[in-house]
Amino acid sequence: MTHFLPWQQAPARRWLAARERFAHAWLIHGLAGCGQMEFALAGAASLLCEAPRDGLACGECQACRWVQAGNHPDLRRIRSDAQAVREGAMDVAEDAKKQPSREIRIEQIRSLLPWFNTATHRGGWRVALLYPAESLNTIAANALLKILEEPPEHTVFLLAAQAPDRLLPTLVSRCRRLPLAVPPAAEAQAWLESQGVKDAAARLAVAGGAPLLALEQAREGRPVTPDWLELFLDQAGNGGDGAALADMLQAGEPADWVDGFQRLWLDLSLAAHGLPPRYHPGQAGRIMAIARKLDPAALARAADWLRSQRRLVNHPLNPKLLADHAARYLLQSVQPR
């Protein structure tokens, strides 16, 4: 994607208006699913465009065609192997036991050094796009920091991140921050409907207002309410030992269901204070019924536990043990006082 999403165009014009005094490094961050990577790539296209219109890429010049084809000599995209596989830019490893790396490695940062020493193709900008920036491992992050301390001429670094707090503070300090807001619900819903998404309002709510996440879930055919969440609500209301729930959790990615539980926990906390749920309005009746009976102290302890697991969930020591413990502990946390 080399154009800005509808809700990004106004902030993009403001951002690009001062390109003659542009910072050498930008940290573009916001809620997952709101389009940080898309914004950064469209920003790179606009910086490289030879005939920008109102500050944005024209989409028609030679530079724009090169960006669209993925072969512009003054643009480098640095991302993890896992991200490249998701984009279809890299084949899955033939050895099934070897998973694509989720980290940006120092070799990828070092590969930029010869590029910095060459002249730009047409005397304009050179753009290095890194995403997701939080996947930089410590060694790679320090190597990038050294580059940013003495940045090469005519070069702009665009770092797209969903969790900037996971980046080295010294690296963040070398960047200008550009936070992206969650788009207005009406605009995001209209865009989802234009993409052919049914139940756009419900999907947008479940995704926390993040339209790209809602679109991804719809295209993957995921139900609006995940099966494991349906089972959890059933067992929370009717009792259950958590064995079936643990089996469902084991079949999914820990990062997905821990995030999902955190959203459900916010809905339960809101319901406990008589407020409507934010993420699952379609399950309001069941959530309110559970919230009326639960122990607020147990709910708060479980929320703290979920936060602690969220920090470790990308590298769980034992996913099966985590799923078993989560199913039993979280069900116990919502039992009647």
From TrEMBL:
Pfam families: DNA_pol3_delta2. InterPro entries: DNA_pol_HolB (IPR004622), DNA_Rep/Repair_Clamp_Loader (IPR050238), P-loop_NTPase (IPR027417). NCBIfam families: holB. This is DNA polymerase III subunit delta. The gene is holB.
